Amino acid sequence: MNKRFSTALVLMALVAFGVGEALAQGGPPRRGGGGFGIVPMLVQTDAYPDGGIIPDKYSMYGGSTMPGFKITAIPDSAKSMAVIFHDLDVAAGNNPEDNLHWMAWNIPVSGTTLTIEEGKLPQGATSKGMGGAAFMGPGAPYSPRYHHYIFEFYALSEPLDLPATAGRPELLEAMKGKVVAKAAYAGRFRAAEGQGFGGGPPRGGPPPAR
To answer: Do residues 83 and 152 make contact, with C-beta atoms less than 8 angstroms apart?
Structure first.
């Protein structure tokens, strides 16, 4: 057998063994000894199923009620939670960045479970939406397809030193090196026929309780 061909076969076998070993352990192959290193959390809500249709109650057309959430499997090292809610199907300002609806940070975490009540945030949290501190729900107009809206939850090792005027870039920058777990919850929305840009949706609901 050609020596060069034989060496190639040995290298391929070693790579295959490494991949197989990693998959047998329940994860993807690791590179550089790091792996992903981010613990997944479980997010639940009674508002709508994960990936399901978002009811009008939680949209701009129904008062923009903030859904309630229960987050479990939070690492013991987490001290606060940040949330980002955005529409994936919009290129804001003709740029790659999608449409941010609302975000919140410094939601206190104590233990491995966090409950966020519908319509309000826990005491001490800071929030910012499209029109102020209030939660801003989906507002996609009627069309042949739905927009996809994502809640992203970040468990952080410490609270963030951010002013209430901070934007998403500042929030993402402040979270660097502090994320100990992450999870997402998705929903789909489009306005009923006759709603949308024609009459303009109502803008937001009351600000969340502090």
So the answer is: yes
